[in-house]
Amino acid sequence: MIELWVIITGLLVGITCGMAGVFLILRKMSMIADAISHTVLFGIVMAFIITQTLNGFWMLLGAAVAGILTAYLVQLLHSSGIQQDAAIGVVFTTLFAAGVLLITLFASHVHLDVEHILMGEIAFVPWDKWTFFAITMPKAVWILLLVLLINIGFLLLFFKEMKLATFDSLYAASIGVPILFLHYGFMTSISFTTVAAFDSVGAILVVAMLIGPAATANLISKSIKQMFLFSMLYGGAAAIIGYYLAKFWDTSIAGMMATAVGLLFIMTLCAQKFMDYKRKALVSKLEGV
Amino acid sequence: MNALTVENLSVAYDKKTVLENANVTVPSGRLTAIIGPNGAGKSTFLKAILNQLPNKVGKVEILGKLFDPKSLVVGYVPQRNAVDWDFPTNALDIVLMGRYGHTGLFKRPSKQDKLLAKQALESVGMQDFAQRSIGQLSGGQQQRVFLARALAQNANIYFLDEPFAGVDAATEKTIIDILKSLREQGKSIFVVHHDLQTVKEYFDYTILLNKTILASGATEEVFTPEQLQKTYGGKLFMMQDMLGANSLC
């Protein structure tokens, strides 16, 4: 049962992140995800300092606020004439440093250590349980399910607007699509996703899970719906492959999951290039006849 | 009624003024060229009219009203290279986006929307490419898809940003024929245009722009060597040398 919960958690991380990553890739915002994955630390610490509890709900809220703050500050610096990548770099390192500082100053006595937040520990997930509606499941599974539902809800409500605003924001604005609202709404859902995946795979590896599966899916998808499907499949597959590889070599589960993401990407890229090459060879052969 | 009224419009990027004190009035039912040298602020002018720039002062009225995107009176065709054509979707799906404003939030496009999108695609001669990935279309075909999207929106005023840039001759002909037939239906069309040789042939109204509106009016009155000289400065001499004097006007 313990092992099953770890696998389920990994699967949920893969699926939730895979889903959230699709628009991240299409909007060319991978680096924003990287930034948010660091700055949620600041939000979590602030939530702890204000409430003095390690309650999951407040942490989720703090992380969401920090995520939006990050997106907002980056946007602010960018529109004042600073390059986007520089703006991201400045904002996230500053907020991350502030987070680390606050932990050592105010929260050094609680279980909120930097290593745990950066690396996570999925193997400990099954022991921290919550019971709702007479169902007892690991806390991480509850939070991941909640965030998955929130993300699905956001997509169901705004799918076509997100698609349009992502493909062509100029046209979207000209017909009244609220592009700023969507931008911040999406950033919020990325923040939720990051903090939900936190406990299990840690802040750094969340980025791999957010970007890798979606980037892999983007190689082979012909429509956004396909991309969602493939991205969630890749995310889930990476989680399972990663878990068994880690078990086999007795090493970090989260690390192996991220490695599996990378391996799947490289394999898909090679397969795609090979198919491309074969198709071109066939075309030139046909033209030669 | 006037299609467009612009009063004292100024736009700045990073404290640098791109457009200063532009004033122009264009009556309805015209096919208008917006011309001027590179960097004159033509795209900026369009974006400012469509309320997409923060650092803007002045007054803009479209069909006698302040522009409200939700009214869907404006069909905007941005520059083709403003978007990433590797986006994973097909041509019909892009055209269907032209119906999103009518569909409304939270709803999916109806059968009627899909039918209108198909018709729009057909009117630009792209019906055979409906299911084709947009990344596999040629530049001209992508431009047609963009126009079809604006047509599917069924607007009253169209703003096109360089629709003829990098397209093949057949596409250029298709596009201009459609724009002319829109004008026949009483609609107003504004086109940011680069090719001075075709201005007289395509457009009945012309706006000359370089940092501000230098002249506007019926093409035969405005499109004169003196006005062009004023707009393009020394750059025009080069063009005249290349094309032979007076070949333009």
TrEMBL record, chain A:
Coiled coil: none annotated. CDD domains: TM_ABC_iron-siderophores_like (cd06550). It comes from the Bacteria. Its main location: membrane. Gene3D superfamilies: ABC transporter involved in vitamin B12 uptake, BtuC. The chain crosses the membrane at residues 6-25, 32-50, 56-74, 86-110, 130-158, 170-195, 201-220, 227-246, 252-271. It holds the Pfam family ABC-3. It is found in: Cell membrane. The keyword Aminoacyl-tRNA synthetase does not apply. It is a multi-pass membrane protein. GO terms for biological process: response to zinc ion; transmembrane transport. GO terms for cellular component: ATP-binding cassette (ABC) transporter complex. Keywords: Cell membrane, Membrane, Transmembrane, Transmembrane helix, Transport. InterPro entries: ABC_BtuC-like, ABC_TroCD. Belongs to the ABC-3 integral membrane protein family. This is Metal ABC transporter permease. The lineage of its organism: Bacteria, Bacillati, Bacillota, Bacilli, Bacillales.
Automatic annotation (TrEMBL), chain B:
Keywords: ATP-binding, Nucleotide-binding, Transport. Residues 4-236 form the ABC transporter domain. PROSITE patterns: ABC_TRANSPORTER_1 (PS00211), ABC_TRANSPORTER_2 (PS50893). InterPro entries: AAA+_ATPase, ABC_transporter-like_ATP-bd, ABC_transporter-like_CS, Metal_Ion_Import_ABC, P-loop_NTPase. SUPFAM superfamilies: P-loop containing nucleoside triphosphate hydrolases. One of its GO terms (molecular function) is ATP hydrolysis activity. It comes from the Bacteria. Coiled coil: none annotated. Belongs to the ABC transporter superfamily. This is Metal ABC transporter ATP-binding protein.
